[in-house]
UniProtKB/TrEMBL annotation:
PROSITE patterns: ADH_ZINC (PS00059). InterPro entries: ADH-like_C (IPR013149), ADH-like_N (IPR013154), ADH_Zn_CS (IPR002328), ER (IPR020843), GroES-like_sf (IPR011032), NAD(P)-bd_dom_sf (IPR036291). It comes from Tardibacter chloracetimidivorans. This is L-iditol 2-dehydrogenase. Its cofactor is Zn(2+). It holds the Pfam family ADH_zinc_N.
Length: 317
């Protein structure tokens, strides 16, 4: 099979590798595609802790495809089942996954791209946010996650204020149900605009979906007394500082919405399947850029540089 190997910072090549055989409790998935996650960008840049070359297919964890072989003691799925997989070497033609870490995709999703892990992540973040009818919710950073959370929050009856840097992102937020949009330019100006929109109360829920220091600072400023600040951004480039005085004074509840239990990820993927089939969410508009496996480096660069109109890249074998 063909696999992508990161050979150095910012460098990738496609190599041949043996087809893996599933062991006990495993399935092999013939991949149709894999989403590109922003969490790949720090390893792609080559920090000191990163080791090159990588294992074949490494960093790819948003794969979907057809089960083509199963190992001993597997009853949950069978060859021919189309699934979303929680696996970790999916920048390749095939990957192995635990049988209890794949979710069947129903016929309604045939021929539809389904990067299950980020879709499940959006469902889990929404669940942990505790958003309810009548609340005002600020979402900082309208990319793939931010757009889906905008749709979920607005459908729950909340008023969504979307805050993002790019004009196309703000347009996307309105398409996904945002009541108000604010350009992410001036820190104090954003605070004053949200103060005016909420008659000085600020927001019962604030979701930070960028993964940088400034958006995290801004998120705290926009959270109401006894509100909930939900950290959905992936903070992997170093320690953060927080304004504990503000967090204490306002009595803010802070939720780190990243799951680490694989079963929670799988439950989120199953919820996402139901949400897409029912029409509750439609992520198709968010898959804006497609690349073959040989152009994985371009996909990673686009995810980093975010050209106008970019939301999410998918890589196909």
């Amino acid at each position: 099979m063909r696999v992508a190997v990161l050979t150095a910072p910012g460098e990738v090549r496609v190599e041949e590798a043996p087809l893996p055989a599933p062991g006990a409790g495993q399935v092999r998935v013939r991949l149709e595609g894999c989403g590109v996650c922003a969490s790949n960008l720090t390893p792609w840049a080559g920090p000191e802790w990163m080791q090159f070359p990588t294992e074949g297919g490494a960093l790819g964890h948003e794969g979907w495809g057809i089960v083509d072989a199963v190992g001993p003691d597997v009853a949950e799925v069978k060859p021919g089942d189309r699934v979303a997989a929680l696996s970790y070497n999916s920048y390749a033609e095939y990957d192995l996954a635990a049988a209890n870490a794949v979710v069947r995709l129903p016929p309604e999703l045939d021929a539809t791209p389904f990067p299950g892990e980020p879709l499940g992540c959006a469902m889990n973040i929404f669940r942990r946010s505790g958003i309810a009818t009548g609340q005002t919710v600020a979402i900082i950073g309208i990319g793939f996650l931010g757009a889906l959370l905008t749709r979920l929050a607005s459908q729950a009856g909340a008023r969504v204020i979307a805050i993002s840097r790019r004009r196309s992102s703000l347009d996307l937020a309105r398409t996904f149900g945002a009541a108000e949009t604010i350009a992410m330019e001036d820190h104090n100006d954003i605070i004053e605009k949200v103060r005016e929109l909420t008659q000085g109360r600020f927001c019962e829920r604030v979701i930070e979906a960028v993964g940088k220091q400034w958006p995290l600072d801004l998120a705290a400023e926009l959270t109401a007394e006894r509100g909930r600040l939900v950290v959905a951004g992936y903070h992997q480039d170093g320690p953060r500082q927080i304004n504990m005085w503000l967090w204490n004074w306002r009595g803010i509840d802070v939720i780190n919405a990243h799951e680490r239990d694989p079963s929670a990820y799988v439950a989120g993927i199953a919820d996402a399947v139901e949400a897409v089939v029912s029409g509750r969410i439609d992520p198709s508009l968010l898959y804006t850029h497609y690349y073959p496996l040989e152009r994985l480096g371009e996909a990673l660069d686009a995810t980093r540089d975010r050209p106008e109109g970019f939301v999410k890249a998918l890589v196909t074998p």
